[in-house]
Amino acid sequence: MEIRAALPEDTKVPGTWKFNIGGETEEVRGNEKITYTAENVPAGNYQVNVQFTPDEDEETIDLGSHDVSVPTVTGGELPETATSMYNFLLGGIMLSLIGLALLMRRKVYE
Q: Which of 1, 29, 68, 85 makes an SS bond possible with 38, Cβ 3.0 to 4.6 Å?
């Protein structure tokens, strides 16, 4: 997920950016404009809060919260996970039923 943030026009000082993404806070050093890439963010909806604290011990500038949606990845290839377990299960059930039928037939004629 890529986040772009910029300070108001009249603010041009270095400082620390804080990005709160769904409860996880990341701090990044930067200037008046920044592009931050959050790695390994799972798909879902998040509220992102962005703050900037200047190096000159001024007050923290809160740029507000924004709702962000991270979509699922599409177009990927699924792994080959098919097995013949269900075929063996069906064969075992069929053999058990045939054996049961032969046993019952034998008991009837004895």
A: 1
Residue type, 83: T
Place of tokens 């792994």: 79
Look at domain 2-70 and name its CATH class.
Answer: mainly beta
Copy the structure tokens of residue 67. 């709702």
Q: Which of 16, 72, 17 is CA-nearest to residue 48? A: 17
pTM of the model: 0.58
Residue located via tokens 């290839």: 77
pLDDT of residue 101: 94
Nearest to 1 by CA among 32, 15, 31, 22: 22
Measuring CA to CA, how many Å separate 17 from each of 14, 34, 54, 75? 9, 8, 9, 34
- Residue ranges covered by each domain of the chain: 2-70
What's the whole-number mean pLDDT along residues 86-102? 95
Say which amino acid occupies 95. Answer: L
